[in-house]
Design brief:
- This protein has two domains: 143 residues, NAD(P)-binding Rossmann-like Domain (Rossmann fold, 3-Layer(aba) Sandwich), CATH 3.40.50; 185 residues, NAD(P)-binding Rossmann-like Domain (Rossmann fold, 3-Layer(aba) Sandwich), CATH 3.40.50.
- 34% of the residues lie in helices and 15% in strands.
- It is built from 13 helices and twelve strands.
- The strands form two sheets. Strands 8-7-6-9-10-11-12 form a seven-stranded parallel beta sheet.
- Helix 12 links the parallel strand 10 and strand 11.
- The two termini are 22 Å apart.
Amino acid sequence: MVTADSSPLQPRAVRLAGPVTVAVSELEFGKAAHVFEAAATDGLRCVAAPASEAALVAAVRAHGARHVIVGVEAYTGPLYAALQPGAVIARFGVGHDNLDKAQATARGLYCTNTPGALDDSVAEHTVSLLLAAARHTVVVAGAMAAGRWQGRVGVELKGKTLAVIGCGPIGSRVAGIAARGLGMRVIGCKRTAAGAEGLCREHGFAEVTTDFAAAVRDADFVSLHIPNLPETRQFLNDARLALLKRGCWVVNTARGAVVDERALFDALASGRIAGAALDVFVREPYEPAAPGRDLRTLPNVILTPHVGSSTVEACARMAQRALRNVALAEAGRHAEMDLLNRDVLGRQV
C-alpha cells in the first residue's frame, strides 16, 4: 500500500510494504542518522557503508542493498555494474558531477539529488563568510586564542557592492539577505536575461546582467553560485580575476572546480585582490593545486571544509529527500523523482 504526504521533503511521502535495503555512505549516514534509522518504519532498511567505490560495492553485495545514497565521492564504474536495473543512486546534496549519468542510464539506474534542501544553509554560510571577511574575524579570533590582543579595522557591509555570479535559488537567497538584511547593493550575473525583473523584485537585486565584467566592475565582494559543468570549469580564471577591482574579496560556496586555484593563489599573493573565503575546493580534502601555491599559507584567505550545507536542518532535509526518491522508485512513480538523468525514463527496467 502506498500513502501520500503533502510535504515534498518527508520520507513518508511514500510508504512501502516490505523492507528494502539502502546502503548509505558513512559520512552522510552520520549527518542524519535519526532520519535514516526512522526510515525502517517506511520499509527502508538503511545501512552505513564506506564511501570509496570498491568498499561501497562490497557493502552493496554483502547487505543485498537495492539502492545507495552517496556524498561527494566520485563513482566511475564498478558501482553502476553492481546495482540492478531500476536501482537509485541518490546524491545526498545538490552537486552531482561525481556521478556518471551516462553509465547509470545505460544500466537502467536512476540518479537523483536533493534540490532545495540545502539552499538556506549554504546561503547563510555564504553571508557568514562575507561578514568574517569584512571584520577580519578569523585573524583576530586566532590572535586571541594565541593570547594576543590584536585589533584590526574592518569595514561595514552596508553600502558595499556584492556581485552574485549565478542567480539560482542559493544565489538569490544570498542576494536577499545581503540587500534587505545588510543594506548591500547586489548585482546579479546570469547566463540569460530572462527573469531579471522578477529577480530584482523578489530578491532585492539592484540589477541583473549577463555581462560578467559589468557585474564585477564596482564589486567589493564577488560570490560564486554556479554549478560545475564543462563550460564553467575554472570559470574564475586569470582573465576574469583581472576584471576584479583591487580590494575585492572572492567568496566560493559553490563547487571548487569553478575556480582556477593557481590563478587565485597568484592574485591573492600579489595583492591583486584583497582576499578569498572558500568552502569548496578542486580536491577535497584540500590539497594545493600546485607546489608552492598552498592557499593555507596566505594571510588573506578564509578556508572552511565544505560545511556550507552541514547544518542539522539541511542534513535532515537531504536525508528525507534522498529517501523519498528511493521510495518513489520502489513505488514506480519515477516521473515524480528528482531525476538527474531523465532519459532513463524511456528505458525498460
